[in-house]
Amino acid sequence: MADFKQAPEGASLGVKMMTWVDNRFPATKLYKEHLSEYYAPKNFNFWYFFGSLAMLVLVIQIISGIVLAMNYKPDAALAFASVEYIMRDVPGGWFVRYMHSTGASAFFVVVYLHMFRGLLYGSYRQPRELIWIFGCMIFLALMAEAFMGYLLPWGQMSYWGAQVIVNLFSAFPVIGPDLALLIRGDYVIGDATLNRFLYSTSWPCLLCWSAW
To answer: Is pTM beyond 0.85 here?
Structure first.
């Protein structure tokens, strides 16, 4: 068992609290290794910011999505009304919803810039091919995530957008109809589809964990 550190005599309350935390969780060590004393290359510049910025926007999306899900009803008869309820009656709901919807667009802008930086600097070359492939897989998963989130407000644009995308999957030979049925959860887009799409929005949590 590791020895516990002791706060110096006459230390402030903040130092004592941080010492107590460090004895149980290496918060200061992680801060130094990943932030204050992190070794960065000499050519570190503006283009390297977008990976961390994408992670920040993703965390904001997850938090705002959880808040929205607390008041959302994945039901064909109630989904649109629940969005109106969030906008009009939930304190700060309009702000959280707009932050979430605008954040989705902002996230893809940041990701595209991050991918452009990867192409510009040759980050896909040996020996980093697997990192590039894994990043592309995350990008495809997030595109699917954005598509699922687009349906949830249950407006006309949402409904017909989902109808078009699902019909594209049905065009696959042999497995197309079964694949479209699997995505919809029913023969028409309705309650089952809303439930599937809502609960599929837990993907970003897994993506954050995998990226970490």
So the answer is: no
